[in-house]
Amino acid sequence: MIISTTAVVALGADAITSTQTQLDAERTEKSLTELNSKTALVALGQTDVQQVTLPASSSSTYHVDENAGWMNVSYQNTTSGDRTTVVNESMGEVAYRGNGETRLAYQGGGVWRSNGDGTSVMVSPPEFHYRDATLTLPLVTVSGSGALRGGASISHNTSRQYWPNKSAGAVNPLDSGQVEVRVQSEYYRAWGQYFETRTDGSVDYNHSSNRVTLELLVPATNPPVQGGIVAGTPGTSMTIKNNAEADSYNSSVGPYSGFPDNSNSRIISAGDVDVENNAIIEGDLESGGDVQISNNGEIRGNLSYGGTASGGGYPSGVSGWSAQNASVTAPDSVERLIDTRRSSVSSSNDNADSSVDIDNSSNTLENCASTCELTAGDYYLSEITLNSGEDARIDTSGGDVNIVVNGTITIQNNQQITVVGGNRVNVYVEGDYYQRNGALVTVEDDVAPNFWVYTNPDADVEFDNNAEFTGVIYGPNGPNNDGADITLDQNAHVYGGVVGDVTFVSNNYGIHYDEALQRTETTTIPQAIPSVTYVHISTNDVNITSD
C-alpha cells in the first residue's frame, strides 16, 4: 500500500508539473502576442505609450535583452558589383524562461518559441511582408535590459527610413540587383521557415552561427526573340557589309528552302549600325544609335533610329518609312539560370543511361568516330569537341533534352550535330562556343525554336568559314552591359537568331530569322531566382521597461 501510494503521488506530481508547464507556456504565448500587438502600435506611430500585463510563476521570469539577435539587409548592384549595407541592427528581445526547456520570446516584431533541442517555431509573424515583388520591412527593435515583473511599459524611441531614401540614392523601382536579408538569432530556424513560406526567396542556413540568409533578386526580363540579331548594348557599333544578307522564314509554316516570303527579317541594336558594301536587310532595322547606309547597302523595310541617319545610301537605300523613334532594351542575362542548371544537373543526370554515348569518368561524348547520340533527359558534360570524323545526334522524340556543358563547345572541320524530333534542346554553356570550317548544326525542318544555346555574357561565340547553325544563341546581359561577343563571318549562315553583342556581319554571311521565335518562350525552365522590385525598409526602436 505504501509503495502504491508513493507511485501514485509521484506520477501525479509529474503530471501536475507537466500540465503546469504547458499552461505556463500557453499563458506566456498569449501574453507575448499581446505584447507584440501593443508594441506594433507604438513602433509604427499609432500611439506613444502602451502597457501590458506579463503574468509569471514564482520560478519563471521575463527579461529584456537589447543585444539579442541582429538583422542585416544589404543591396548589391549587379551591374557594378558594389554591395551596400542598408540596415545592420540588433533586434533585441523580450524573453521568457520557465521551468522547462521551452523558451519564448518577442523579437523583430514576432513571437518565437525555442524547444530546447535546437529547433524553433514561429508563434506569430514578424514585421516582414513580401508580396508581388515588393518587400516591406518596418523592423521593430527593442531597447532596455533587466527583468520585467508583472507587466511592461512600451514607449517609442526613434524611427528611421532607410529605403526609399532619395538623398542616399536608395530609390524604387530597383534597376538591376539583389537584396539579401540575414538574421542571426536563437530562433533562426523559425525565421528561415517563415522566409520559405512567405517568399519565393533563396534561403540558406548557417547552423554553426545560428544564422539564416534570404536572397531576393530583381526579376529577369527575357521576352521572345524579336529579330535575327538582337544586340542590346548602347555605345557599341555593328557593321553589316560585304554582301551579307538578313532575311526570314517561318518554321511553323515550313523550312527555309523555298519559303515564299523572306522579307520579314528584323535587326535590332541598341548601338550604331552601318549597312554597307552590298549588304541587304530584307526587312526592318531598329537602332538605338546612329545609322549609316553606304556603298549599295539596302534596308528593304522600315528604319527606326535613336540618333541620326546618314550616308550616301540614305534615304534612297530605305524602302519603307524612316523615323527617329527607336527604343531598344536588351534582355537580361541568363548567367544565373546557367549556374542553377549546372548545379542541379551535375548532381542528378542521365549520363549513366546505357543508351547514350557518354564517358562517365570524364563526362565527355565517346564513340563519336561514328555518331554519338543523346535522347530525352538531362546531361552533364565537361565539354563538347567534335573534330574530323565525329558527329552527334540529338533525338527529342521522347521529350526535351537538357545539356549542361561546364566548358567550351567546339564544332569544326565539316562535323555535324543533328537534332530530330519535335521537342526542344536546351544547352547551357559555361564557356565559349565555336563553330568553324563547314561545321553544321541542323534541326529537322529548320525549326529554330527547337535548339537553344544559352551562354554567359562574357562568352565568345564564333561562326566562321561556311559554318551553318539552326537555332538560337542567347547571351544577353541587360540594358547597359556587354553581352556575349558574337562574330559572324566568312560565308556562314544562321537560321534562327542570335542575342548578344554582334560587332560585324560580313563576307556573304546570312542571318535567316525564324519568325516562329516571336511566339516561343525564351526559357522553359523558370530561373530559380526570387524577385523584388520595390523595397520599403525602416527601423522603429521601442523602449520596454518594467511597469
From TrEMBL:
Domain DUF7305: 320-519
Region (Disordered) location: 341-362
Cited InterPro entries: DUF7289, DUF7305
Pfam families: DUF7289, DUF7305
Ranges in coiled-coil conformation: none
Biased composition (Low complexity): 343-362
Protein name as it appears in the record: DUF7305 domain-containing protein
Organism: Haloarcula vallismortis ATCC 29715
